């Protein structure tokens, strides 16, 4: 197999993984934009405690969910991309 053929094959094989990566990046961007947008549009909502008397605010929980969603999306990408590569 020539080097040119290997290079051509790898660029087309990477297309599904690249598309998946961009889709997941867009999803994470929307999640983060929702977090920031809520702060901009309604700061009183984000500074409200989760329950009366608690120090934990909605912003704290929302921020942790943003971080968790990043980890879940990354793990999902790795699993799917590895399966696509193994084909």
From TrEMBL:
<dbReference type="Pfam" id="PF04341">
    <property type="entry name" value="DUF485"/>
</dbReference>
<feature type="transmembrane region" description="Helical">
    <location>
        <begin position="20"/>
        <end position="41"/>
    </location>
</feature>
<dbReference type="InterPro" id="IPR007436">
    <property type="entry name" value="DUF485"/>
</dbReference>
<keyword id="KW-1133">Transmembrane helix</keyword>
<feature type="transmembrane region" description="Helical">
    <location>
        <begin position="53"/>
        <end position="80"/>
    </location>
</feature>
<keyword id="KW-0812">Transmembrane</keyword>
<keyword id="KW-0472">Membrane</keyword>
<protein>
    <submittedName>
        <fullName>DUF485 domain-containing protein</fullName>
    </submittedName>
</protein>
């Amino acid at each position: 197999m020539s080097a040119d053929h290997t290079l051509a094959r790898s660029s087309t094989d990477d297309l599904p993984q690249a598309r998946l990566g961009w889709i997941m990046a867009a999803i994470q961007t929307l999640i983060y934009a929702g977090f920031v947008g809520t702060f901009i549009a309604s700061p009183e909502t984000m500074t409200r405690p989760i329950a009366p008397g608690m120090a934990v605010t909605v912003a704290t929980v929302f921020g942790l969910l943003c971080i968790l969603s990043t980890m879940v999306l990354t793990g999902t990408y790795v699993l799917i991309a590895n399966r696509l590569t193994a084909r």
